[in-house]
Design a protein that fits this description.
The chain has about 200 residues and is α/β, with parallel strands linked by helices. About 50% of the residues lie in helices and about 10% in strands.
Length: about 200
Amino acid sequence: PLALLVAGVVTFVGAGLAGLSILPRYLTVPVVALCLFAGYAVAGFTTLPEGHPWRARWRNGALGAVVVGAIFLLVQIPSFGRLGDELTFVQGINRDLEALLAAPAVVQAGGCGPLSLPNYRLVPDARWLLDAPARDVVARSAFPRGERPARGVAVFYVGEQPLERYGFADGADRLANVPGPGFTPLERAGALRAYVSCP
């Protein structure tokens, strides 16, 4: 666990120093390691033999930490509602993507060119749903403006929250979420719209 903690922190800091994007989820490995240490801090007194002078002190300290943690959870209860809203929103976007990609018009237009999305956010999900290689599902933000796919199926976000959370994520080019010349409306599903250019 200590090696995981150190490696995770070094990787996270190194990515930041190298100018790469740093997101909180990149701290997952060190956080898991810290959870193991926290678990030992709370229950580790059981590893000491009965009658050991530090066992009772450790147990009392662990009990105090559990009480403080319980109070903290009570104070943070409103954030659980926000977490539920966030999970519902993310699940809704994924359901919209699945419905859009399964729509007959989108399936039929699949041979016109690559499926393109405004940025990287839903590219892995789309590739998974379509069982498609990287060349068939691309992020328009990965291309210079004049070199974005001129044909195929292009997916766009609509609505304030989807645009803010997915369409313009991490400062993505806002024009990546605007249909290019030659693209016409094809299908819609919730917060997603598909356009097609199929010469």
